[in-house]
Amino acid sequence: MWKRKTARKHQSKQHAELLNTEKLKQQRLTSSLQDNLDSLKDLFGHSPDLITRPFPGGMVLCIKTIVDLKRMEESVLATLQDGLRLDKLAAVELFRVQDQGRAVQELLEGSVLIFQQNAEEAFAIRIGNTEHRAIEEPQTESVIRGPRDGFTESIDVNLALVRRRLKTPSLRVEEFNIGEVSRTKVQLLSIEGITSSKLVNEMRQRLETIRIDGIMESNYIEEFIEDSPFGLFPTIQNTERPDVISAALLEGRVALLVDSTPFALVAPLTFWGALQSSEDYYSHFTVATALRWIRFVFLFIALLFPSIYVAITTYHQEMLPTNLLLSVASAREGSPFPALVEALMMEVTFEALREAGVRLPRPVGQAVSIVGALVIGQAAVEAGIISAPMVIVVSITGIASFTIPRYNFGIAMRLLRFPIILLAGTLGLFGIVIAIMILMIHLSSLRSLGVPYLYPVSPFSWQGLKDAVVRVPHWAKNRRPFLLQSPSPLRVPAGQNPEPPIQTPQSDAKGGTDT
Amino acid sequence: MEKLGSIQFVALLILFQVGSYVIFGFASSAKQDAWLVALLSMVSGLFLTLIYYAIYALYPGLNYVEILRRTFGSGLGGLLGACYLIAFTYVAGRVLRDFGELVTTFILPRTPILVVLFCLVFVCYYGLNAGIEVVGRVAEFMLFLFLFFLLTQTIFLTGSGLANFEFLLPIAHDKKAIVQSLIPLGITVPFGETIAFLMFYNQVRRQDMVKFLLMFSVVGAGLVLMSLNLLAVAILGPELYARNIYPMITAVQQVSVADFVESLDALIVIYIGIAAFFKITVFMYSAAVGASSLFRLQEYRTVLIPLSVAVLLLSTFMSKSLPEHVFIGLNWVPWVLWVPLFIILPILVLGIGMFRTRGERGHVEAKNR
Fold first, then answer.
1. Exposed e or buried b for every residue in A346-365, given b needs 16+ CB within 10 A?
2. In this structure, what are the phi and psi dihedrals at residue A62, rounded to the nearest 5 degrees?
């Protein structure tokens, strides 16, 4: 026991040494140009892309793979031809560098370091190449009506997309560098005066405590800052859409942009928020409300339909109308397996099909799903291995699970289906009730950044229902969600509902003909 | 300490009070006048609840065990508190058994009852482990669902043309039966049992609202009970209603709409399951809170596992068969447990408490003079 403990201690010490950049910060640059260059080159292990170029009176150092070579030639090397003159340097971002830690950091950010003979400092000009993927339509959250731009892998572009939507000086951006090796940029976005400072502080605190070597995607951060790390349900929303981020900020929520991934994070997220699509706000409110209701219904189907089928055909046949019972019974007559086994087999196969379709290149993926769904389904029924109603049930369930707009929320529902099917197969409807009760208790105990997951239904909030169970018109959405504790809860002044003018042209015309 | 919101408190109260009824019929021996009994019992329930609140108002911020100790001294008060804990545990076990019998009778005839009991106790344990606030939030959500179920059921029942309201006549025909079913069962069952809530009145966030919330929930639950009674009698007729152990389910079994919606009894079991869950959970919570303040524990969660096991064992071994179970429930339990613990003792506590505070006030006044 004590051995393991000391081993862990040793490990953590090593970890600290490997990742400690504090020591570098204390090593100041010396007056010897060659010493400075050599120590930096040693630090980078004489990497081939770390290049030097002399100029009269000094030396230029940069990592050529991450700087913009054209700008380097035109604006740095050209002006340096007759020595360093700060007033001649055409640079937006010019920094003074005095220690090695900063020098390393600047080099990695894509700066050119300008060293002079006999100077104890260097100058850094940021000319990192800003190459990024073009702004494209987001793949995971497509809409029929609504903006088509999506985030890219570059955090600067992403911030620009948000800034373009919220033209206010109150947009607060706090930058963190998370990951001792990767030093990934993470930006915490909020709006001063709308976002509750408690929320921002909480988020800041959670971000500051993260200790990890590297961040490859925003999920790394998500798993560190969740309220309940073992829950299946997502309590932090991810999105590729700048409009979703902006709308969330306007509601008083906070957003996180993470460099090198197009997926930004939004918190807090509620159960009902997970069932909303951004398009709800871009289509007419009646349509949006109807679509939300359809999603609620299909959420139940996605979660419970196979288990209800198993429970009813195994235990409660009397619940079916006689004719339906007869046709189900005759269809099930030939199949050799009990409904429970059938359901589990088909559901697992369906999940496998979907997984195969996602991983394969798109045209092949489609072929897989066609072969899987049509050919295998048809053949299995004709061969009498699987009963036809089961195929129908599984297909409807599959379609239902596609109606959930948030992918990670849908996965939670898909996975929960399996234990519920097992319970339904052993305890019938009673098992389903038990499963629902446990699920309800779990959902009620979840919180997202302190906000109860089922808000505004429980705890109940009349104002909150306006944007959860229905989607009221934009002129009626008067207040921000109560539990976000926004310092300015009023959002839209009341009494803006449009009406026809009192004297319409039509009535005028009528009056005219009468007289 | 966790705090309960107003709606959560009301939802728990209503589900708790209505829960009894949907398992067994209410005042079935009064036949067609069952709804009248429901109404009278609601009125008496209002009085009882007022007594409980008055006790709490004398000692605001304390739970019932602490109040008992304050009134009777540490020894006797602790003993009486222990009586309540045992009673709550026993009643939780009874409700659990009721539900188990119901499930094995109607939807899972070949499943051992122990499996059913265990599953439900596990859910209750899981809920209480998450905390009373979480249970309150579930109740809040479920109340909407429950009312929706009640509404659809009423629409289906009246829509199927089954209800014959002439069954309700003559009104107040058998006055002796009314009185017999009112005393003691009608007074104690749904409303007297809310003394369990006295263990956590002090956890309601809006202390100024507690009285209103109590009254509101008693009236709400009473009206729901009354209308359900009216409906059940109108469908089954007074004789069948009086003889059936599960009149409400039998009534719902008659539903048949458009050859599609048939035999809703499995659905009924679902919502009885919901009601039973809240009833058992509240009793268990009261017992756990009481035990933790009796034994001066920090956390009520430490007693949850032994309590759950106790409830499970009690419910399994409390009676050998359903008729025995029902007989004990109707004839012994009210006199032995409910009347002394729900009516006599609270009145005593209130009397002593009022006497004391008056004495103290007189004492203070005398001092001032």
1. bbebbbebbeebeeeeeeeb
2. -160, 165
Query: Is the pLDDT score of B65 beyond 60?
Result: yes
Task: Indicate the SS3 state at residue A97.
Answer: strand
Rounded distance between C-alpha atoms, residue A140 and residue A405, angstroms: 9
- Tens of pLDDT, residue by residue over B270-296, are 778 888 899 999 999 999 999 999 988
Helices (H), A166-240: 197-208, 218-225
Compare all CA atoms of chain B with the CA of A423 and give the residue at the minimum distance: B119
Q: Are A421 and A344 in contact (CB under 8 A)?
A: yes
Q: Compute the average pLDDT of residues A159-180.
A: 93
DSSP one-letter code for B76: H
Within 65-84 of B, beta carbons closer than 8 Å to A belong to: none
B274 contacts in chain A (CB < 8 Å): 433, 437
Q: Is A167 exposed, middle or buried (0-12, 13-18, 19+ CB in 10 A)?
A: exposed
Q: How confident is the model at residue B263 (pLDDT cuts 50, 70, 90)?
A: low
Determine the Cα–Cα distance for residues A76 and A64; give it in Å rounded to an integer: 13
DSSP secondary structure code for residue A271 in this structure: T
- What value of ipTM does the predicted structure carry? 0.90
Whole-number Cα distances in Å, B151 to A196, A480, B5, B172, B219: 41, 33, 25, 27, 18
Give the Cα separation of A476 and A473 in Å (integer).
5
Please state whether beta strands B256-257 and B261-262 pair in parallel, antiparallel, or not at all (unpaired): antiparallel
Domain ranges of chain A: 18-126, 155-267, 284-452
Cα A235–chain centre separation: 11
All structural domains of chain B, each given as residue ranges with its CATH number in brackets, are 6-368 (1.20.1740.10)
B119 with A428: Cβ contact below 8 A = no
Instruction: From chain B, pick out residues whose CB is under 8 angstroms from the CB of A452.
Output: 137
Q: What percent of chain B has pLDDT over 90?
A: 28
* Cβ contact A94:A123 at 8 Å: yes
Which two tokens mark B99? 């539900």
Q: Which residue among A321, A430, A460 places its CB closest to the CB of B259?
A: A321
Beta strands in chain B (DSSP E): 256-257, 261-262
Q: Does A272 touch chain B (CB under 8 A)?
A: no
Collect all residues with Cβ–Cβ distance below 8 Å to B276 and sequence separation of at least 6. B19, B23, B95, B96, B98, B99, B120
pLDDT of residue B266: 67
Give the residue among A264, A252, A325, A307 at the shortest CA–CA distance from A482.
A252
Give the C-alpha distances (Å, rounded to integers) separating A335 from A318, A321, A412, B79, B233: 21, 22, 30, 63, 45
For the record, the structure tokens of B149 come out as 């179920």
The sign of the torsion formed by the CA atoms of A33, A35, A38, A42 equals negative
Per-residue pLDDT, A514: 46
